[in-house]
Amino acid sequence: MINIIYLSQNKASALIVKNIFSEKYLIPVQLIKLKLAEKCRSFDERYFELCINEKGELTELSNPNIKNIKKSLKVFNPEVKYD
Which residues pair with 36 in a beta bridge? Predict the structure, then answer.
């Protein structure tokens, strides 16, 4: 999941970033969420989160570690036995 957080009047910029992810990198739009916020802060560290501040600058808030994601999924846990 990718969260694109934007402040004040930067929705147009957020849509441009969303389109780049979906068209250039072929990420399904269902996995890209836009969020209006009062300040740049991470909503969920499991997701890749970007923020567009009042000046229109794009910053990275969180970039999840794939090892941590795999640990949280039972499918990748070698201790779990499946029938």
Answer: 6
Q: Are 58 and 10 in contact (CB under 8 A)?
A: no
Question: What dihedral angle (degrees, nearest 10) is formed by the CA atoms of 4, 5, 11, 13?
Answer: -60
Specify the pLDDT at position 44: 84
Q: In what order do the strands lie in the sheet with 48-52?
A: 32-37, 2-7, 48-52, 58-62
Q: Is 64 exposed, middle or buried (0-12, 13-18, 19+ CB in 10 A)?
A: middle
Amino acid at 55: K
Q: Please give the Cα distance from 33 to 82 (Å, whole number).
A: 34
pLDDT tens for 32-70 read 999 999 999 988 877 889 999 999 999 988 877 666 656
pLDDT at 45: 77
